[in-house]
Task: structure prediction
Amino acid sequence: MHSESSVFRINQAGYAAGLPVIAAVLGNGPVILKNAAGEIVRSAAFDAPQTDPASGDAVTLVDLGVLEAGAYELESDAGRRRLTVCASPWNTVTHALIKGLYYQRCGCGLLPEHAGVYAHPPCHTAPAQEWTDKSVSRRITGGWHDAGDYGKYVAPGAVTVAHLLYTWKLFPQGCGDDLNIPETGSGIPDILSEARFELEWILQMQRSDGSFHHKLTKSHFAAFIMPQDDLEQEYMMPVCWCATADAAACLALAYRVYLSFDEPFANRMLLAAKHAWTWLQAHPDFVPFMNPEGVRTGRYGGRSDSSNRFWAACELCAATGEEAYRQAAEELYTPDLNLTEFGWMEVGGLGALCCLTDLKESAGDVLYHRLKEDFLRRSEEALALSHASGYGTSLSPDRYVWGSILPVMSHAMAMIINTILTGRQDMRDAALMQWHYALGMNALDLCFVTGFGENTVMHPHHRPSGADGLEAPVPGLISGGPNKCFCYPQTKEKLGPDTPPAKYFLDETPSADTNEIAIYWNSPAVFVGAYFNSPF
Ligand SMILES: [Zn+2]
Result:
């Protein structure tokens, strides 16, 4: 599915009435915008496009201002393109990004009434063995398949849940409550029901000493088969420091969120979080996770657990109000924590989110005032990156890494939090540019969310999408996007050395390096989408 080539790059899911409409135009102007009646409503003249360093494109961002709802057409000497403006253009795509996680559910069947043609029987229901002692086995249920593979990993899962819970806390009206998941209509918001599916699994990954297994996977990735056909033995892999801290943080956060819906469940999570913290206190020396001999599934190896411990201390402080946790968070806070990163590798941003939006002044001078200054400075850097890009994308050319959508969405989250703290419209507008990037205003002219846009990802590296025999991939999944840093030899062979970083992408199933999907890429996009989906 690809429209004729055009000189216009737009948000293919549409634009919002009430927010500025920006389009990227390749080449020279002038450009006019016509409404459905054929009347010219805007015109822009320019003749010196800037070269975008990440794509090599000569491109100009044209600000069309705030437009009334309706259908429009952009025109220049080099072509035309339709765009739409409506009151709530991003409802559907935001809700689909949440529902995308439902399609990743493991241990249960996806029923036709919820999953339509993507329904499948239950998967991965056999007991898992301890990798280090295969005589021990346990049935662990639930959780989401992590990405294009069928593994389940505690740290990435905890981060994903945290994105969802903060989304609900900050922008509940943007989340929707009619996602058609099994729990719809239960009286609990759908986004919280979906997050709970992972939380119940995370709880089962705790060992009796309080630590957490790093992951539940086989020894190797499955072939491109449906999940119910993946019948080889799964293992509880060894303990992980980062996973234990992330689980503590996420469960303490979840305690606060679910307390008013289900107190026994909330208390169970707080108990588990405290137990994990006690284990961390007894094991202060970080040991990086390494795949045991013979294991080839995702490593997710953090270089340190300091940001993870910091986040855990912040959330336990917010959950309990206990001074010991606040003091621990203050001791763990250092200016080199990256407060605008929200991914599995670096979770300082999640600790910052807790301090800035929940603890506030009660965090004390260091964790509120000093941290706020550091956070605002970091988000300024994200804004500067956006301004340096021809497409307004907050990514330097050398940051087109595996899953480059994550830093783009993380920076958008940081800009949104900045806007909440300061009211700055330039930050909000820059965050909007990252959302436009995800939905098509990019050098590839591609909407990265499956099922959306006229030019959309059709062949994600996602086993069910590759194995189900259907043409369209599972909807509501966001692709990792261009990656010139750590790509496969076959990708290099196809794209060559001269393809610029922002175009280093293959919409091909084998290309996990550029076109995989992952739960923790969907979830920051949910945060950004729900913010722009909320009434201003
Ligand atoms: Zn499964």
